UniProtKB/TrEMBL annotation:
Official protein name in the record: Protochlorophyllide reductase ATP-binding subunit
Coiled coil: none
Highest taxon above the source species: Eukaryota
GO biological process, one term: chlorophyll biosynthetic process
Keywords, comma-separated and alphabetical: ATP-binding, Chlorophyll biosynthesis, Chloroplast, Iron, Iron-sulfur, Metal-binding, Nucleotide-binding, Plastid
Species for this entry: Tryonia myriophylla
GO molecular function, one term: iron-sulfur cluster binding
Cofactors, names only: [4Fe-4S] cluster
Record InterPro entries: NifH/chlL_CS, NifH/frxC, P-loop_NTPase
Length: 164
């Protein structure tokens, strides 16, 4: 964003951690907005779900169902569908999806259908490495039918990168 690129950050985590960090507040989620509009996609406008964050980064939060009451992957898929229908994918130079790393089901893997590259941010913890492996396997699978490549792994909060 500081280099003049138009950037969209899509948070796909119930904690809202990436979008909250950029905006300073809990932005309304796409799933909550759709629910308020009785799932009439045509009644949802970009300004209903896209909020300006730090350094001009636009932010969207997918949201999720209450614990034990639905599928988070479904919510991510609905977010992709809504943004595609509103042509938001074509207005940005860079789109970042912050997805849960420990889940690599079809819904959470939906953003990979629109990606050119995937960068996995991980640490040396067993759970993080397991998740990184699952995401890499998803990228390998999707790359059979989409122009998607794994760009690499970033070691986060770790001084040793040997396991990564």
């Amino acid at each position: 964003a500081r280099r003049g690129k138009k950037v969209l950050q899509i948070g796909c985590d119930p904690k809202h951690d990436s979008t909250f960090t950029l905006t300073g507040f809990l932005i309304p989620t796409i799933i909550d907005t759709l629910q308020m509009k009785d799932y009439h996609y045509e009644d949802v406008w970009p300004e209903d779900v896209i909020h300006k964050g730090y350094s001009g980064v636009d932010c969207v939060e997918a949201g999720g169902p209450p614990a034990g009451a639905g599928c988070g992957g479904y919510v991510v898929g609905e977010t992709v569908k809504l943004l595609k229908e509103s042509n938001a994918f074509y207005e940005y130079d860079i789109i970042l999806f912050d997805v849960l790393g420990d889940v690599a089901c079809g819904g959470f893997a939906a953003p990979l259908n629109y990606a050119d590259y995937c960068i996995i941010i991980t640490d040396n913890g067993f759970d993080a490495l397991f998740a990184a492996n699952r995401i890499a396997a998803s990228v390998r699978e999707k790359s059979q039918t989409h122009p998607l490549r794994l760009a690499g792994l970033v070691g986060n909060r770790t001084s040793e990168r040997d396991l990564i």
